């Protein structure tokens, strides 16, 4: 039983840590506040949702999300990522370096970054036109939490 728990914890470890980090950022904009039971329930639901999305869009059952699968998965989540951005995402999060696709952990990390940056951008693009004007400081404050997370 302990061995099974350890294997599950190892398997979901990185995805859990990433979701946990983003949850903390979302709660307070910093790592100052520790989440309670409600937030942990939200975290587990988010992880279950990410797993479901991964499995639904890994259409060839390769255990990895390739470029087309990533495009479709992100689109299903409401993120119409342009092809140029999609290529950058794949090159960054496909850790094999051999265009074999994203494993689950890297898929979650990629998805969280796209989700977080898109939500931040929408705060500046209130009319949802797809463009926004922002200062250098606003841009840096928008992007840096995702780089250092
Ligand atoms: Ca696949």
UniProtKB/TrEMBL annotation:
Superkingdom to which the source organism belongs: Eukaryota
Molecular function terms, GO-annotated: calcium ion binding
Zinc found in the keyword field: no
Residues in EF-hand domain copies: 45-80
A matching Pfam family: EF-hand_6
InterPro entries in alphabetical order: CML48/49/50, EF-hand-dom_pair, EF_Hand_1_Ca_BS, EF_hand_dom
Signal peptide (from-to): 1-30
Keywords from the named record: Calcium, Signal
Official protein name in the record: EF-hand domain-containing protein
Organism: Selaginella moellendorffii
């Amino acid at each position: 039983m302990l061995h099974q728990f350890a294997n599950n914890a190892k398997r979901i470890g990185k995805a859990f840590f990433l979701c946990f980090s983003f949850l903390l950022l979302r709660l307070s904009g910093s790592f100052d506040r520790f989440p309670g039971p409600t937030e942990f329930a939200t975290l587990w639901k988010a992880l279950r949702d990410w797993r479901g999305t991964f499995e639904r869009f890994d259409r060839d059952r390769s255990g990895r999300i390739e470029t087309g699968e990533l495009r479709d998965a992100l689109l299903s989540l409401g993120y119409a990522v342009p092809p140029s951005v999609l290529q950058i995402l794949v090159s960054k999060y496909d850790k094999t370096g051999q265009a074999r696709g994203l494993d689950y952990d890297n898929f979650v990390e990629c998805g969280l970054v796209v989700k977080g940056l898109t939500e931040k951008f929408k705060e500046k693009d209130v009319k949802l036109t797809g463009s926004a004007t922002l200062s250098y400081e606003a841009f840096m404050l928008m992007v840096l939490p995702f780089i250092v997370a």
